[in-house]
Amino acid sequence: MVEETIMEKIEEKAEEKAVENHKFFDQKNCDRCGNELTARITSWFTTDTICMDCSAKEDEIKEKLKAKGKNPSDYEGCGYIPKTVNGKRL
Ligand SMILES: [Zn+2]
User: Fold this and answer.
1) How much distance in Å is there from the Cα of 17 to the middle of ligand 1?
2) How many other CB atoms are found less than 10 A from the CB of residue 50?
3) 32 CA → ligand 1 middle, Å
4) What's the pLDDT tens digit per position in 27-73?
5) How far is CA 73 from CA 44, 45, 77, in A?
6) Which of 19, 31, 77, 79 is the one with CA 20 to 30 A from 55?
């Protein structure tokens, strides 16, 4: 039965999403710097859950990309960030 298969897939996907959300909101510390998460956001470049300080550093990377004439959107989810930005460690 095609329809049953579709429903199973949808339920499976919804469950995966719920687990992901749970993980996101349960997480206590930043994936990147280890600081306690008072506010959280998903990294622009990776799947890390990060703090606002780390997010601000990512914004600096985005600014640098723009300064080089690149579109930061092209790098969304690329899975890589440089180790330092403007001489500061990430
Ligand atoms: Zn952080």
Assistant:
1) 23
2) 27
3) 5
4) 999 999 999 999 999 999 999 999 999 999 999 999 999 999 999 99
5) 9, 10, 9
6) 19
